[in-house]
Amino acid sequence: MSSNEHVPVLLGPVLDGLDLKPDGCYVDGTFGRGGHSGEILKALNSNGRLIGIDRDPDAIASAPKSLVDDPRFELIRGECAQLETFISERELLGQVDGLLFDLGVSSPQLDEARRGFSFLRDGPLDMRMDPDSGTSASDWLQAVEERELIQVLRSYGEETFAKRIAAAIVAAREISPIETTLQLAALVEGAVPAKQRAQKKHPATKTFQAIRIAVNGELHQLQAVLNQSLRVLRKGGRLCVISFHSLEDRLVKRFMRDESREPEQYRGMPDVPAQYRPKLKLIGKAVQATAVEVDANRRSRSARLRIAERC
Known about the structure:
Number of helices: 15
Strand content: 5-15%
Structural class: alpha/beta
Largest sheet: 8 strands, mixed
Distance between the termini: 41 Å
Radius of gyration: 21 Å
Shape: globular
Order of helices and strands: HEHEHHEHEHHHHHHHHEHEEHE
């Protein structure tokens, strides 16, 4: 397959995990190119409802006409962290049967050089999920303090050579702004030890991930939407989250684990006050793509799906 653009990751497990009801109400909080949404809609009857959310204007503009024209479907441009607001405005708080979040950057975003997400394609160093708001990666790099940059590279990229890379970026920006993806990629490559340049993974991979997460506030968005899911879902509603790197997955795993237990002081007690009872029930273990799916869609190789049900 030449492109992964329209291939929804872990589609079967997602549809199973959502436990779709024909007349249910569902939210695809990271619409992307609508792959998951299209399949969810097929499972709904005329009374079913599906809401898609995405902050990327390209995702909104390229939404399939078959979806946009379907009266059961509504597409909202906005951040997933606005979930509770959107659902409340539609008077659906506590009535949603399933939430899906497919995290990270999509294949179309990586493939489009002008978006600035890829170190393999030369383009403006932007990296914003919504190019109409926020600060571009180039402007962020120009202003960030070296100490903060080191922390971002360590925390969000788990980058071993954070100090060396940060020093190279700070030295370079004093001469001229870092404005393109290949400019940044070359800086990182020159900053790491020679043996790292010979590795299979490009030496700029972690740096690009870290800066993208910082520019878009991705982990803050994720934590916010996880917290909001408890108020959005009805009892028995399902939460399905697909993550692509360990930072996201750890955050999701910890949230689902913590919300599926009573606080320590109440564990084992026969009568736990209502406000301290578990709010989620874990559904199975983390699901990963099969070898067959990975062969067909390379993006799925690092995907991990976690599922929980509202109690």
